[in-house]
Amino acid sequence: MSRARKSTSATLPAALRVEPGNTVGVVGAGQLARMLIEAAIPLDITVRLLAASEGDGAAQVSPHVLIGPPAAYTPLARLAAASSVLTFDHELVDIQVLERLEREGHCLRPSSSTLAIAQDKGRQRRLFSARGLPAPAYAFLREAADVDRFGGTHGWPVVLKAVRGGYDGRGVWMPADAPSAMKLATELLDAGIELLVEERVSIERELAMLVARRPDGECAVYPVVETVQRDGICHEILAPAPVDAALAAEAHRLALDVATAIDVSGIMALELFLSAGKLMINEIATRPHNSGHYTIEGSVTSQFENHLRAVLDWPLGDTGLVAPAVVTANVLAGPETVDLHRNLPAALAVSGVRVHLYGKAPRPGRKVGHVTALGQDPVETRARAVKAAAILANRAPVEAGR
Ligand code: ADP
Questions:
Q1: Which of 172, 205, 367 to mutate to test the pocket of ligand 1 (most atoms within 8 A of CB)?
Q2: What are the residues whose beta carbons fall under 8 Å from the beta carbon of 293, sequence distance 6 or more?
Q3: 211, β-bridge pairs
Q4: How far apart are CA 280 and CA 276, in angstroms?
């Protein structure tokens, strides 16, 4: 990477040289950008960041930081001017600003039209139904009475979802019954939140697919994984998922279909429910994804490297697993204060685990790191990853099987 002083204002130091072809501008500077930088180093790719603040996880480890809001035109235009391609570590962007950058000739991967779908659960649901893809029944809510009509047709209980802006289960509500769903919908609609109502699916397992896709449509697909969720938050990722070959092939087909339909460039994650033996699509993300952190140690090519390769339109790397079992356990901060650095040596004493800390303050419920273990046996491998993550977060390890 070229060297430069850290920029603390919305201006890039003039001394920063743009190296055509290998400078990736990343909008957002959280843990995904931090792990992208790690993957960029061996390929001598320069990653420039647009960070909301100097303390952001990736801004802490990069000399190429521009500080500014991710939805405003000026900082984005500056980042784009200093990069060969712009990519994103979150979806909280303004599509009209991105369209303007594209009209001005900047290269955005994924494009504004792909991101417009990724940031809108309503558009995703419409796309899935238009293509005949399996997904939960849904309806847009104009008034609270729409919830009652939906529940009357599709049954109770239901799920309410914010159309935009949700993550880690924030923006997803599971009211227990019809009266509480109506009351909640009234409150949320009154607060100006655009809402969807969905059937509450009885979930056997949650699965996820990752696809890396180049601008010309070439794809590399990772094996299907299981994501173990509690309270709307992903706690563990088990690779490969314990599902049969026919189901894995169907997940692969769905992932390719959606990646093509939204014309994604870069990594796309597809979140799936397994219900009554059948797959249903929950949602997509068009960036590296928490369900793919296992790929750093567990795959021939990590999702971060393949994202960089895809957005630079370079050949994609092998997506195969390097061990029979790969498990990632997220480190989730609990309600009590936790000192991750103090706990780190004890976590590292767990055999063979790889620890990633994101440089984030451990506020309750926040993902502040993850641990990956590789092994021969899924149960033993999972136990090691879960143990090290629990040590880091001062939690009792949760037994496999939830
Ligand atoms: P987020 O965008 O916050 O990740 P999701 O739409 O992925 O929100 O929902 C978070 C979690 O809530 C899912 O992983 C799943 O466990 C649960 N969930 C979401 N939609 C449904 C549904 N229709 N039926 C049952 N559970 C659901």
A1: 172
A2: 35, 237, 303, 328, 356, 370, 372
A3: 221, 268
A4: 10
The ligand 1 site (C-beta within 6 Å) comprises: 136, 159, 166-172, 198, 200-201, 203, 206, 229, 232, 271, 282-283
pLDDT in tens, 322-343: 999 999 999 999 877 889 999 9
Question: What Rg do the C-alpha atoms of the chain give, in angstroms?
Answer: 21
Nearest CA to ligand 1 atom 13: 232
**What b/e readout covers 81-102, taking b as 16+ CB neighbours within 10 angstroms?**
ebbbbbbbbbbbbbeebbeebe
Compute the distance from residue 201 Cα to the ligand 1 centre, in Å: 9
Ligand 1 center to residue 262 CA distance, Å? 21
Q: What is the pTM of this model?
A: 0.93
**Which residue type, as a one-letter code, is found at position 308?**
L
222-241 residue pLDDT tens? 999 999 999 889 999 999 99
